[in-house]
Design brief:
The structure holds two protein chains of two kinds.
Chain A: E1 5-7, E2 10-13, E3 19-24, E4 31-38, E5 42-50, E6 53-56, E7 65-71, E8 74-79, E9 88-95, E10 106-107, E11 111-115
Parallel strand pairs in A: 2-11
Antiparallel strand pairs in A: 1-3, 3-8, 4-5, 4-9, 5-6, 7-8, 9-10, 9-11
Chain B: E1 5-7, E2 10-14, E3 19-24, E4 29-37, E5 43-50, E6 55-58, E7 61-66, E8 71-76, E9 85-93, E10 100-101, E11 105-110
The chains are: A mainly beta, B mainly beta.
Chain lengths: ~120, ~110
């Protein structure tokens, strides 16, 4: 398996624009997580899915953020409209269990988002 | 919100020395995990220790867990320049929740 694949690696967009981040989890992993990393707040869990169903989105900062998982091999995180304070690195991770009891979570390489 | 808090925030050592990083957390846990993040990359799982375990080894890594003090330590022995990275502890609550990460320790190993 090629691991968790995220695209794009870098995204620079203007304030007010829509941004879509994409993730392909490891095949067979039932859980998918979206995290955001900033210097000030560290790694924050935004939302997670189990078998393509959103379970907990309490970490999504505002209604401008939305996430979907239409099938087991694809998820998107959308920000509309984007704001400069959304600038961060967004990570997708997948795991076979919620607590990562077997081999932990497998992370993608992240998408570095810059909103100007 | 952060559960784990690593100490120190940054650590600089010479190649060959041992590096020790500490993590404190607040609630009862199911397990605690350590991850490494190289600059510009994603996090990589290093080791997991369950709440009923006190010590675990993996290669040059040694992890301890003291649930009475709600703390863990990661020891990297005989460090190498390639160990330069940020190290994060992450916990799963006893209610089996997703991983919650600390802010990490930045380790620099100087050749």
């Amino acid at each position: 398996d090629a691991g968790v694949i995220q695209s794009p690696r870098h995204e620079v967009t203007e304030m007010g624009q829509e941004v879509t981040l994409r993730c392909k989890p490891i095949s067979g992993h039932d859980y998918l997580f979206w995290y955001r990393q900033t210097m000030m707040r560290g790694l924050e869990l935004l939302i997670y899915f189990n078998n393509n169903v959103p379970i907990d989105d309490s970490g999504m900062p505002e209604d401008r953020f939305s996430a979907k998982m239409p099938n087991a091999s694809f998820s998107t995180l959308k920000i509309q409209p984007s704001e400069p304070r959304d600038s961060a690195v967004y990570f997708c991770a997948s795991s076979s269990t919620l607590g990562g009891m077997s081999y932990g979570y497998t992370f993608g390489s992240g998408t570095r988002l810059t909103v100007v | 919100s952060q559960q784990g808090e690593e100490d120190p925030q940054a650590l600089s050592i010479q190649e060959g020395e041992n590096a020790t990083m500490n993590c404190s957390y607040k609630t009862s846990i199911n397990n605690l995990q350590w991850y490494r993040q190289n600059s510009g990359r994603g996090l990589v799982h290093l080791i997991l220790i369950r709440s009923n375990e006190r010590e675990k080894h993996s290669g040059r890594l040694r992890v301890t867990l003291d649930t009475s003090k709600k703390s863990s330590s990661l020891l990297i022995t005989a460090s190498r320049a390639a160990d330069t990275a940020s190290y994060f502890c992450a916990t799963v609550d006893s209610g089996n929740t997703p991983l919650v990460f600390g802010k990490g320790t930045r380790l620099s190993v100087i050749a």
